[in-house]
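lol forgot to send this yesterday, sorry. struct tokens for the thing we talked abt
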């Protein structure tokens, strides 16, 4: 579920009239904390909606007005406000005499329709999901064509009583799919009015039933898990025999080159041998024909906020290891258990302990602290549970950072994080950071005043000021030198800044040109929505200039020998491939990018004895691509097979389960003859 993304029902379907209460109120809850509201007010055939969410200092603010016909379907719909990152919303839809017209950030569109259809909007609030479900339930096969393309369907789940609220209510679960990678889970009451929209992390629930939020989140986990377990059973091939990848070349991260053609044999979770291409095949082996393609060790996504719906998509993208940079700790632990048991597919997860100060703008991941003592207790909690590092966040008091870092180092943990509000990168290096997260967190210190608050969207919008910054100025060079001299790593998350600073409403994002038309229609339309508000004269140019300055800063860092760490903060998968392309734009060769994303990150996390390269005895974590990715990095976008912990996945089998058109074909596989 994306906030401020949805679809509007287009045509009349008889029998949908409902007796709504005059006002429907919902609470948005994440991590047990209220972060927003949704209010739908009915006045005859007119509905007005107020949807506002603020988490981590940002979130959508949406106002909607709908005019409904006698069947409860909109004949007019206006949606205004702002998206999560501030871009303005002005979306309009109308239908009359069998013709639908609409306008959103992509542009204007129209269609003449002869059958019931659903218009897919960009910015409708989650209240619309109840509308969609009711329309689909009245269709005979519970599936309707969608505009501008695709189809949407609903599946009916179980009925569930809820008693921990204003009054007992019985609801039924519905899964709406076809728009995005994963279904939206919607709960309707016996009158088919919306009761809740649920995800493993966030629920939107009818006011008065907030105490049910834990149960609702657990329900979302169970629904998602059941779906993904089914997909895993169909797509994870554990052959119970040695598997030989024949006629492949291996990327060697030490030599930055490919080997001669060989065969790589795996048995169980490990690489059992690497043999000459003409070696005899032992009885009972499974043969995978590499056809001269390249094997690359599994990639490391170093800025994940892991959700299980996207876990298998990361595997399909060759990402077999991920560093989680902040999550609901209990949810993440349960997810890791399911992945390690093989119940669902996903990368090997290395946990970073998220510590955030309590404030009106705090994020709701990890552990929230309100004192130095609570900060130290949080560090110790993470150390006792095997986390690889702690991550300090925006609302931490700057003076707690040095204390937290000292304790973390004493306990053998690395320290990473944002620059807390009212501080700067130089101070955090002095405080003991081993790694700085996000390039904007560093650059802000050069252009903002000490009293300006970076706990809101200001930490993004203030980047406009970079347009006039002299990168050779003393403050800039002092910070870069300080980072280099202290051997502090930088995890810049370039792709998220490309999206923020360069995306324009209606245009295909630069980073998505190679894959966008393969995605479900809802994902496509969401991607074509700008992030930042660029409505003021000169803003678009200032943001573009800021992006160029950030790229130049990172080139200077690379030249100074600062370790730059690849991670997306965007879910990995396709955006991780783009992240690696952007690293190449900094001056790394394709081979250097691959080494950075494999061997170097395995070494950084202390895992290079088992992962990071393809060698006898190491874990069977690698992927197969056609061609030579050391010559053309785009080769990693057409992965034919992925091995993780000995399970073999073929992306062409995985992607259709997520509504994605595959990018290539599976290799030829020959199973051993039956005894």
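and heres what i got for the seq, position by position
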């Amino acid at each position: 579920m994306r906030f401020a993304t949805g679809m509007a029902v287009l045509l009349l379907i008889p029998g949908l009239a409902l007796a709504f209460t005059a006002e429907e109120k919902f609470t948005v809850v994440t991590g047990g904390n209220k972060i927003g509201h949704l209010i739908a007010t009915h006045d005859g055939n007119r509905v007005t909606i107020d949807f506002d969410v603020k988490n981590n200092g940002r979130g959508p603010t949406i106002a909607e007005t709908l005019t409904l016909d006698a069947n409860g379907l909109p004949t007019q719909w206006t949606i205004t406000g702002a998206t999560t990152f501030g871009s303005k919303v002005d979306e309009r839809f109308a239908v009359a005499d069998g013709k639908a017209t609409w306008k959103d950030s992509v542009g204007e569109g129209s269609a003449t329709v002869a059958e019931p259809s659903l218009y897919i909007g960009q910015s409708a609030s989650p209240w619309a999901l109840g509308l969609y479900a009711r329309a689909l339930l009245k269709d005979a096969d519970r599936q309707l064509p969608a505009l501008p393309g695709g189809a949407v369907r609903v599946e009916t789940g179980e009925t569930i009583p809820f008693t921990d609220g204003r009054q007992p209510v019985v609801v039924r679960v519905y899964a709406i799919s076809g728009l995005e990678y994963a279904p939206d889970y919607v709960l309707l009451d016996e009158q088919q009015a919306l009761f809740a929209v649920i995800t493993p992390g966030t629920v939107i629930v009818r006011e008065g039933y907030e105490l049910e939020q834990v149960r609702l989140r657990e329900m979302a986990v169970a629904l998602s898990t059941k779906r993904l377990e089914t997909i895993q059973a169909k797509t994870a091939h554990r052959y119970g025999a040695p598997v030989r990848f024949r006629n492949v070349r291996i990327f060697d991260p030490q030599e930055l080159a490919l080997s001669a053609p060989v065969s790589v044999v795996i048995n169980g979770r490990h690489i059992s041998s690497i043999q000459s291409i003409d070696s005899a095949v032992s009885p009972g082996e499974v043969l995978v024909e590499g056809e001269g393609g390249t094997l690359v060790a599994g990639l490391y996504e170093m800025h994940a906020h892991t959700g299980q719906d996207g876990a298998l998509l990361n595997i399909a993208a060759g990402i077999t290891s991920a560093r989680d940079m902040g999550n609901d700790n209990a949810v993440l632990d349960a997810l890791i258990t399911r992945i390690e048991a093989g119940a669902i597919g996903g990368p090997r997860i290395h946990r970073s302990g998220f510590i955030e100060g309590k404030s009106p703008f705090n994020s709701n991941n990890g552990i929230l602290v309100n004192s130095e003592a609570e900060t130290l207790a949080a560090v110790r909690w993470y150390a006792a549970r095997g986390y690889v590092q702690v991550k300090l966040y925006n609302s931490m008091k700057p003076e707690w950072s040095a204390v937290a870092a000292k304790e973390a180092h004493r306990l053998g943990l690395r320290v990473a994080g944002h620059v807390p509000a009212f501080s700067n990168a130089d101070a955090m290096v002095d405080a003991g950071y081993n790694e700085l997260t996000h390039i904007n967190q560093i650059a802000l210190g050069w252009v903002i005043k000490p009293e300006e608050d970076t706990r809101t969207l200001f930490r993004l919008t203030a980047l406009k000021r970079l347009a006039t910054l002299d990168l050779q100025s003393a403050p800039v060079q002092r910070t870069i030198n300080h980072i280099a001299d202290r051997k502090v790593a930088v995890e810049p998350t370039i792709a998220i800044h490309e999206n923020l600073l360069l995306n324009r409403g209606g245009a295909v994002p630069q980073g998505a040109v190679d894959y966008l038309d393969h995605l479900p229609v809802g994902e496509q339309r969401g991607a074509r929505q700008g992030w930042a508000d660029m409505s003021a004269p000169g803003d678009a140019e200032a943001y573009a200039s800021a992006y160029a300055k950030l790229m130049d800063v990172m080139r200077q860092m690379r030249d100074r020998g600062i370790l730059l760490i690849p991670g997306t903060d965007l879910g990995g998968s396709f955006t991780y491939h783009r992240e690696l392309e952007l690293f190449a734009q900094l001056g790394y060769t394709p081979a250097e990018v691959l080494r950075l994303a494999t061997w170097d990150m395995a070494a950084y996390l202390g895992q290079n004895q088992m992962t990071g390269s393809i060698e006898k005895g190491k874990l069977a974590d690698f992927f197969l691509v056609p061609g030579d990715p050391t010559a053309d990095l785009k080769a990693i976008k057409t992965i034919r097979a992925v091995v993780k912990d000995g399970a073999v996945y073929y992306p062409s089998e995985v992607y259709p389960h997520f509504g994605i058109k595959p990018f290539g074909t599976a290799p030829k596989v020959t199973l051993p003859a039956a005894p």
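The mean pLDDT is 93. anyway ping me if u want another try
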